[in-house]
Structure formats: C-alpha cells, structure tokens
Amino acid sequence: NYPLYIRSVPTENELKFHYTVHTSLDVVDEKISAMGKALVDQRELYLGLLYPTEDYKVYGYVTNSKVKFVMVVDSSNTALRDNEIRSMFRKLHNSYTDIMCNPFYNPGDRIHSRAFDTMVNSMMMQVC
After folding, report:
1. What are the mean pLDDT values of the chain's consecutive 10-residue runs (128 residues total)?
2. Angle at which helices 82-100 and 114-127 pack, to 10 degrees?
3. How high is the pLDDT of residue 32?
4. How far apart are CA 62 and CA 4, in angstroms?
5. Is-contact 17 72, C-beta < 8 A?
6. Which residues form a coiled coil (predicted)?
7. CA-CA distances (angstroms) from residue 118 to 59, 102, 113?
8. Exposure string for 34-62, b = 16+ CB within 10 A, e = fewer
9. Alpha carbon of 41 to those of 63, 85, 87: distances in Å?
10. What are the extents of the domains in the chain?
11. I need a surface site. Which of 24, 55, 63, 128 has the fewest CB within 10 A?
C-alpha cells in the first residue's frame, strides 16, 4: 500500500491528493473483502465509485495480482460516465503491464517512464 506513481493537476493540491489516495486504499481493501472469493478469480476488479466528497469522486480498480489503481476526479465533471472511467482504468492497466514487462524495471520501484507519463497526461487532458 505505497504509491508507485502519483500525478495531479493542478499541482498545488498535491498533498491533499496524496491523503485522499491513502485513505481510499482502506475503502479498496474493505470492498475487496466484502466481495469475497467469488470475484477474486475474475480477470479484473473494477470497484467503481469508492466514495464521493464535496470536491472529488474517488474511483478504484484492482487487478488479479492485487495492484490497486485509484483515480480522483473533480465532482463538477458530469461528462464522465462509469464506462469511460472503466476504460481509463483498462488503459492504465495496459500501460502498467507494459512497464512490468520491461526487463530494466524492478517491481516495487517508483514508475519513471516517459510512455506511461504520456499516456496519463493524455487521459488527464481528455478529462479536463
């Protein structure tokens, strides 16, 4: 439960986003344990909306290898639907898989990849 990659726009609230991501990991664990073993065997676990706050909505996704993705979206953005969030998580998962296939990447290290940054930035520009 330690972040490998965090990106936020705007950057002035970065500490607030760190806190939000860390607190949402507890909700992810609760949802996984509530689902039980029946859904653990699936290929992916899209957890959906973890919790809304006044300013943000927090979404979660867990892979079958227990890698957790957390996305924080502005609450005022009503254009994002559940299917779009799900497809964004799939893109994120595919890019993460590409990084893990790199023989020079040590699992557990922070992610420093230009291709991953480009993909995340393009997703963030789509949302904004």
Report:
1. 83 83 90 71 78 90 90 84 91 94 91 93 83
2. 170
3. 84
4. 14
5. yes
6. none
7. 21, 17, 9
8. eeeeeeeeeeebbbeebeeeeebbbbbbb
9. 10, 22, 20
10. 13-126
11. 128
| Amino acid found at 57 | K
Q: Which two tokens stand for residue 48?
A: 């959906």
Q: What CATH number does the domain located at 13-126 have?
A: 3.30.450.70
Instruction: Note the helical H segments in the chain.
Output: 14-35, 82-100, 114-127
Peptide bond into 3 cis (omega under 30): no
CB-based contact 24:3 (threshold 8 Å): no
Q: Which tokens sit at 119?
A: 């993909």
In this predicted structure, what is the pLDDT of residue 42? 62
